[in-house]
Design a protein that fits this description.
The protein is built from six helices and seven strands. With 365 residues, the protein is an alpha+beta fold. Helix 4 runs antiparallel to helix 5 and helix 5 crosses helix 6. The C terminus is likely disordered. GO terms for molecular function: ubiquitin conjugating enzyme activity. It comes from Rhododendron griersonianum. InterPro entries: UBC (IPR000608), UBQ-conjugating_enzyme/RWD (IPR016135). Keywords: Transferase, Ubl conjugation pathway.
Length: 365
């Protein structure tokens, strides 16, 4: 008698689900707002954090134009989603959608998972959908803000030519997702900044620093996602990182040891030595143990990577103590400079400003 082993069902790229309880736009459309004339209107801005009231009911009529259009979008997504984009829609809230995009290979987003919540407006497609990036407070791209705002020409939230903007007669939800995957999560995200494309030769160093920071942010996002996965994607996220964990950790180790350009693991010869900043190496060493822990929690077999975790943890602990001492010394120096600045101001000299923003990489823009 042969034993039949059932294989787990493959996670579908498109599916209709019921639980929308943690959606960013859950109660968004019925939130009352006031116009400049004081007239109460429905909400139409792009802040997903304002939702406090019950959901809408104007999407429930199957004969309405907006209902028909959204169902048509569902069919397009179900048949045409490209590889590494996964979508869930809701049977009782057709105005809501959630998408997960796997970061493309050859970019600092490789193997990461990036989740977006979407809300169709009541006059869709006259207006584009609202899109909120579930950021965990991290700005991972010039177009993806820490507060979840997504800047994209197709959403009318980013400048662009007329043919790049939302067109009610032609634009689709599929185009939005493909644009995020291909245009936003790209190899050199630094150049998504307005004006960063000018004099690119002079800004190569800044671009490299931004790419290094981006990979660190992507690793942080992996950890946070595994600790708090969005509903209906728990299985996908756990399985994805279980299957990709050794590749991700191998990439981290290669980057830390200058064996690959950050974001390009597997594309270059391991015999070459590449320039990687000390700051990146220090940050990577501090996050590496956290990644090993959450990956192990998925059931991944990590083997030698667990021993590497111990080594990185020990090294990063020493590094952290050194960083604290440097910070204390810097603060003392800063206090003295501030005192000198006050004296100069009192004597009528021009006050010299100090930088207030703390950045992950000092070479970033």
């Amino acid at each position: 008698m042969s034993l039949i082993i059932e294989q787990p069902e493959r996670f579908r790229q498109f599916d209709v689900v019921s639980d929308h309880s943690d959606h960013s736009y859950l109660n968004y459309w019925n939130k009352p707002t006031k116009s400049k004339k004081g007239i109460s209107t429905t909400n139409n801005n792009n802040n997903a954090n304002d939702a406090k009231t019950d959901g809408p009911d104007w999407f429930a009529n199957p004969s309405s134009g907006v209902h028909k259009k959204i169902i048509k979008e569902w069919r397009v997504l179900e048949r045409n989603l490209p590889e590494d984009i996964y979508v869930r829609v809701y049977e009782r809230r057709i105005d809501l959608l959630r998408a997960a995009i796997v970061g493309p290979a050859g970019t600092p987003y490789h193997d990461g998972v990036f989740v977006f919540d979407v809300a169709f407006p009541p006059d869709y497609p006259a207006r584009p959908p609202l899109v909120h990036y579930r950021s965990f407070g991290i700005r991972i791209n010039p177009n993806l803000y820490a507060n979840g705002k997504v800047c994209l020409s197709l959403l009318n939230t980013w400048f662009g030519s007329r043919n790049e903007k939302w067109n009610p007669g032609e634009s689709t939800m599929l185009q939005i997702l493909v644009s995020i995957q291909g245009l936003v999560l790209n190899k050199n995200p630094y150049f998504n900044e307005p004006g960063a494309g000018l004099f690119t030769g002079r800004k190569t160093k800044k671009s490299m620093a931004y790419t290094e920071n981006t990979f660190i942010y992507s690793c942080m996002t992996m950890v946070y996602l595994l600790k708090k996965p969005p509903k209906n994607f728990e299985t996908f996220i756990s399985t994805h990182f279980r299957d990709r964990s050794t590749h991700i950790l191998s990439a981290c180790d290669a980057y830390m040891n200058s064996r690959a350009v950050v974001g390009c693991y597997g594309e270059t010869s391991s015999d070459q030595v590449f320039k990687v900043s000390k700051n990146f190496k220090a940050l990577m060493k501090s996050w590496y143990p956290h990644m090993v822990v959450v990956f192990k929690g998925t059931g991944a077999s990590l083997g030698s990577f667990e021993q590497l975790m111990v080594e990185k943890k020990t090294t990063s602990s020493k590094g952290n103590y050194s960083d604290v001492k440097k910070k204390q010394k810097k603060e003392k120096s800063s206090g003295f400079r501030k005192l000198i600045g006050i004296v100069k101001g009192f004597l009528g000299f021009k006050k010299v400003g100090t930088a207030k923003e703390i950045k992950v990489n000092s070479s970033s823009s």
